[in-house]
Structure formats: structure tokens, C-alpha cells
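Quick one: C-alpha cells for this chain, please?
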Amino acid sequence: MNYSTQNIFFISDLHIGHKNVIKFDSRPFKDCEEMHNDLIARWNSVVGDNDIVYFLGDLTFSGDDLTKWFIYSLKGKIHFILGNHDRLNHIIKFNRWENVYEYGTEINVLDQDSLVTRGSGGYQKIILSHYPILSWNKAHYSSWHLHGHCHGGLMKSNLEYYRRKVIDVGCNCIDYKPISYSEVKEIMSKKVVSAVDRHGLE
């Protein structure tokens, strides 16, 4: 999908209703109720009604009523990428999403700074999935990869991977609120391109 706007945000792994994730992630909440209210407040502090949000999976461990209240409290036009804890039929029935993707998607964001990249046509390509990808499409042409799933754990053990143009957008890695395109761009500007397969020789 091509976008002419840069009002785009990314986040994953909210884990609504998952009490144990507070301990596992060392989340700064005393219980699930505080976590839910704070996540909504943080989300809505940066996302407007017409902004685009890509949610990269693992939404809820709770019942339908709480989940529905939570997602309809969030601002923005939300695109949903399924995580390992999400089920397609369950997610679709909430009728909240612009699109639902089972395995991930690619988007292109109009950005004049991308004109320096061969073949970009003035668009920044972003590869989105719940899981991290070792060799993603156009990585050797400065495409970005955003993922969730790992809760920041992979960053502790594979620093070389994260020197490339990849970010874990699990909520515990980004201050529990969606990260904007401009913030992602700033982070990526400090990273290098390093191919891990033959495509870097093209």
C-alpha cells in the first residue's frame, strides 16, 4: 500500500488482560486495570482520529467485552497484523480494523529523502510483520523492517541484527505508545545497511 501521508504509527504486543506480562516485561503498572487505562491514554496522546496505525500482533488475552471496550477507546485507523496469540476469526469479528493481515504486509511512504535510494520512486518501503525477519525484501536498498513478538529480548542477544534497519516495536520497547514514522526515520538514519545474502551484491 502506498501512502502520501507520513501520519503513520506502529506498535505491537499490548497483551490486554495478560497479568503475567506485567512481570515478564517489567511493565510499570500495578495491575491490568492500570495497564489498560495507561495504554489507552498513551496511545491517544500521540495518535489522532485520522492517523494510521499498524498494530503488529498479540492484542488480547481477555474476554470480548473488555477487548471491545479497549480497542474502541483507541484513536486512529488501525491495520492489524496477526500475532501468534491472535486468531483471525476472533479479531475480525470486532469490526474495528481497516485491514487484517495474517502474515504481514509491506507499505510505501512518500518521502523525498528516499529519492537517494535506487528504485524507490520517492517512497520509503517498510516491511511489517509480527515476527523478526533475517532477510527482508529490499533490505539491501534501505527498506525498513518493523516487528514485534520478542518483547525486546532479541535486542539483548543479537546486537548485530539491530544495527541494520530494523526495530522491535513491542510496546515495552517504545514507552508503551505507538511510535511515529518520523521517530522511526530518525532511528533508522543512525543505522547501517548490511546485506546478509547475495542480494547485497546486485
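The radius of gyration is 17 Å.
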